[in-house]
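Exercise (ungraded).
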Amino acid sequence: MGAGIIGMGKYVPENVVTNADLEKKLDTSDEWIQTRTGIKERRIASDDTDTSHMSYRAAKEAIDNAGISPEELDLILVATVTPDQPFPSVSSMLQHQLGARNAAAMDVSAACAGFIYGLVTAKQFIESGSCKYVLVIGTEKLSKITDWSDRNTAVLFGDGSGAAVLGNVSDERGIISFELGADGSGGEHIKQEEFLKMNGREVFKFAVRQMGESSMNVVEKAGLSKEDVDFLIPHQANIRIMESARQRLDLPPERMSRTVERYGNTSSASIPLSLMYELEHGRIKDGDLIVLVGFGAGLVWGSVAMRWGR
Ligand code: COA
């Protein structure tokens, strides 16, 4: 038996902010945003909706979808850089709200690679026999740390949550291999002071190199080749970065998720939201080999190769 995803859920706020809406407030254009990033619109949460509220909605759906009860969870891992407050953690708040009284709870801080770090951590607990069910959530309210007067960053980000329940799956399914990495020397390039600040060009160069390399590495670690990959779920930061990873795996465009168009960059939520989107649209089937790959502030990166199904 290995560890795999046995249920998923998502939540995105209803409020859609289009590029045209941003043109009214900033010196930018729909044409610039679409050609440089691929983003058409993003979801922005209301003032009274915080990270924990969105996480709860996604978590509830994932637990129901897995067919388990909240009391059966052994561990809750919440990947976020926008918690409601520094402490208590979002995971502890959820533990209470969900009634997951047997679960331990901790938040994971690995920015946009946070969901991958969470999946890999969950895998260790499950395969060691310490946990039966682990809830992993990627969740962000980036709008609360966005400087809405800075066109360099305000057009890029969005809010949302994606959740997965991990448990034991059959030998032929689940997480086969992973890679996690960090290069703290690049920490200056993307950080939160009061608001999120970014040196876009430096992050771009790092991301293009690392997304391609890490995607290939994880396939090789699985003892497979790029021809075996059925679907790519890259972190949704910028279509040009995502394309570089897709081309490295020689995948046709229709076998890569591109929810960046509709959600923008939702940091740790982007990979689970994309996975869920592709499942809902029937593009990932039982037995498919999928590669998840992300990078983010730190700088950090991570990738996972998994065979979909229970
Ligand atoms: N609208 C119009 N013009 C904009 C703009 C906007 N929203 N944002 C920046 N510009 C301008 C810049 O001011 C710059 O003008 P200048 O040449 O007069 O100084 C010009 O566009 C080009 O800027 P540049 O930074 O070279 O653009 P780019 O092609 O690198 O695209 C990013 C910018 C941010 C989209 C790109 O660098 C990127 O995606 N980087 C990675 C960011 C990322 O992934 N972050 C998340 C990490 S998880």
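Further reading is listed at the end of the chapter. For now, observe: The chain has a mean pLDDT of 97. The pocket of coenzyme A is lined by residues 28, 32-33, 36-37, 112, 151-152, 155, 190, 198, 200-201, 203-204, 207, 237-238, 265, 296 (CB under 6 Å).
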